[in-house]
Amino acid sequence: MSTNMMLFFGAVLLIVILMYNSLVSKKNEIENALGAVHTFLKKRTELIPNLVATVKQFASHESKLLTDLTNTRAEAQKSLIKGDIQAADAQVSQVLGRIVAVAEAYPELKSNENFLSLQASLNEIEEQLSAARRTYNAAVVQYNNAIEKVPTVIIASVLGYKRKQVFAVTAAEAAPVDVAKLFNSTGS
Amino acid sequence: MNFKIKSKDQIKEFCQAELAPLVQVFQEKYPLNVPSFKSDFIRFIEFFILGIVLLKINERLAEGHKLKFLLTMISLGALFYSGIIIFTKISVYIKQYMARIKALEALKQTLRSKLFSFLDKTFIYKRTTEFPKKLYEESGLFPQGYDSAHAEDFCSGTIDEINFELREIRTANIETYKENGKTKKRSIPIFRGIFFCAEFNKNFSGHTLIKTDQFESIFGNFARDAQKLFNIGSSLKVVELENGDFEKHFKVTSTDPVEARFILSPTFMEKILELKALKNCELQFSFINSHVLIALPHKNDFFDGNFNLEKLHESIELLVNELNSLLEIIDVLDLDAKLWKTNYIKKGVS
After folding, report:
1. Which domain does A16 fall in, by range?
2. Burial category of B98 from C-beta neighbours within 10 Å (exposed 0-12, middle 13-18, buried 19 and up)
3. Do B240 and A134 touch (CB under 8 A)?
4. How many domains does chain A have?
5. The CATH number of the domain where A38 resides is what?
6. Cβ-based interface (< 8 Å): residues of A facing B
7. Which end of chain A has the smaller Cβ count within 10 Å, N or C?
8. pLDDT tens-digit readout, A145-160
């Protein structure tokens, strides 16, 4: 084999290795971003017992909401263990929205330092969660682009890489919050 | 946005009541009149001519004449005295002039300090200040290093529970070059403008940089791919954001992409674009230790320009407008919208 041929095959091999590594990196970036989403969801779910304890002090007759909170936490934890991140996210988001709405009806609860602190923590986690979701979506878009574009599509199809879904906002999450309905659903 | 610390009337009133008397005292103590040289100049001319005339007469006297020595001494004395007259007058004038300049600098410092604390009791102004070496280097905005650095016009304070500080800085590299066989030096500017630092409204531990991206607006996605390629090995990773307009103007790198997006929420990206449009210059941002550092290039000196004692009120108004235009950064970026509203205020910006 001539030197030129060897150089040519060497270059081709190098390009293939680079493309393969790039695909693997993109795939791992998705897993990494998903890990971040998972962490923040877990952090948010862990706030629920403290919220229940604080709400109980000032709004003890919101029994339905308190039960829902506790149940949601358990369900969200199960979803997280199963890896169903979207479901865990939606369940907790909905019930936390109800707490904020209920707090409006209890001035003492609204001005309680513990509750304010929890609300601040919640705000921060929500922002971090949103950032993690956006990071995940950006990683998925890059990965999907890579597995569909030439020439990486060839290696992706050999490796059996499939398209991944971005973190979509559910219809319920996207809809404006109906505060009145939320109040009614708490049974107050 | 219409960020104002004090109204025009309040500033005018303060100017008349507090600053104008200081200027009046200064003007009385250090009048601008150039001292009259006329009488001294006539005396100088008289003695100078006398000295020259006597010297000429002396030249005509025969060698060994008994008056020769006496005439030489008198003529030299007259010339020396004429020199003393003019030298004394000039040195007294220079001394007075230098004292006036020094006093004027001190007055400007006093006026600015008084004005700044009137605008807000937390505001502190210093004409001279140390170059913020640590802040500048840690910001990562100018990784190329520098040979010379200068800082002045320091201002710090608190607005809506946000601690901030800003100063005017200049950094440059010194380059040596050969011209006509001689080695010469020239200064290559790195940055000149305002270095603004404030608490950020979110907590973070990593480092995120936002730099002006001239290439992406021209070369589009190709430039983005090239950025990633050239960024290999750097501790800061290129972060691609959803806002196309933002991506066109800025390049974002961060130690943590999730944290970068935590800082750069969609709303905050819009606010940065709004600030860029407002300032119409190449803004650069560094987010580190829960603080935001902003490099705002500017060709002219801030708080200095035409500080005219004769038109005090106009000068003060100009200065307040300059300060307002800098502090509106806090307003435009909504830095006071803290996630943690409860007692989360750290003291000491840098």
Report:
1. 3-185
2. exposed
3. no
4. 1
5. 1.20.1440.20
6. 33, 36, 113, 116-117, 120, 123-124, 127-128, 130-132, 134-135, 138, 142
7. N
8. 999 998 889 988 988 9
